[in-house]
Amino acid sequence: MSALLFMSLAGTAAAIVIWLTEVRRARLDTLTTWTLLVPIFGIILSVVVLQERQSIWGWIGTVVVIASTILVTVTTRQRTHTRSTNLIS
What we know:
Elements: H1 2-22, H2 28-34, H3 37-49, H4 56-88
């Protein structure tokens, strides 16, 4: 039971730390995507700590969530950089 508690707390804490790091430079719509990483950290911790096996669908879902988060983050940063460059000109 303590391993499960540790994994849930560690997964949530990792996502919140990333979220707090991004709060300084990202918009709210981008920040909300970081909360989707909570179950991803839980899956990764369950594999590493408990040696659980994930199905192919679990890994596909993990990749989709991570790729989506990266896509939203990069797209938002490029849009924000373009806007700030236009304001300076």
